[in-house]
Amino acid sequence: MAQIELPLVADNPKDIEELREEIGPLVHMDLLENLLNHARSRSLWPLTFGLACCAIEMMAAGAARFDLDRIGAGVFRPSARQADVMILAGTISRKMATPIKTLWDQMPSPKWAIAMGGCTIDGGPFKYPGQYAIVEGADKIVPVDVYVPGCPPRPEALFAALFKLEEKIRAGKKFNK
Ligand code: SF4
Predict the structure, then answer these.
(1) Shortest-distance Cα residue to atom 2 of ligand 1
(2) Measured in whole angstroms, how far is the alpha carbon of residue 28 from the centre of its chain?
């Protein structure tokens, strides 16, 4: 039987965290986890939350013409405590960075983040040398799972991002803390 060699002492919490990631869970309920991942991927609950013009496209994706309910992602929650997907849609001004982090921390795990639009990915048209007003990328605040390029991306692009996220969840790729 293969032996897992563990160091006897993990000096600091970072070491322990790295060890946990390396080893994974001691008991692995494969069938149950697959089932849960499948259920999670088909019942995404986004946070009702928009930052700028990209949010208009996100709202369009939820409305009748495109209808996010068709893929089980139309139940936008008014409370972060009931949501498992944060769609960051729009320019992130510096003053919004702290509220975004607070909302993210309030969301229960497992949870996922989608960066929608050029502004959210890296500052978009508002990125230039010496700018002081915006955060140049959502990944500086929360761990992003899927990026949606465009200015603004169309609702179809958001659907594609959600499909990509569903695939990722079903594959059990990452559960953000
Ligand atoms: S990417 Fe374009 S549409 Fe989206 S928030 Fe920025 S400027 Fe507005």
Answers:
(1) 151
(2) 24
Residue 16 falls within a domain, yes or no?
A: no
Q: Which H or E run includes 116?
A: strand 112-116
CATH number at residue 56: 3.40.50.12280
Domain-embedded: residue 27 = no
Q: Is 124 in the pocket of ligand 1 (CB under 6 A)?
A: yes
Domain that holds residue 112: 45-170
Report yes or no on 12 lying in a domain: no
Q: Can you read off the two tokens belonging to residue 151?
A: 């200015």
At 31 the pLDDT is 85
pLDDT for the residue 175? 53
Nearest CA to ligand 1 atom 6: 119
Q: Is 118 in the pocket of ligand 1 (CB under 6 A)?
A: yes
Ligand 1: residue of 88, 96, 119 to mutate (most ligand atoms within 8 A of CB) is: 119
pTM: 0.82
pLDDT of residue 11: 58
Tally of domains within the chain: 1
Q: What is the pLDDT of residues 29-64, one digit of tens each?
A: 678 888 999 999 999 999 998 999 999 999 999 999
Using 70 as the pLDDT threshold, list the residues of the chain that sit under it: 1-17, 19-29, 174-177
SS3 category, 135: coil
Q: Left if phi > 0, otherwise alpha if psi is -120 to 50, otherwise beta: which for 91? A: beta
Q: Is residue 175 part of a domain?
A: no
Q: Is 13 in the pocket of ligand 1 (CB under 6 A)?
A: no
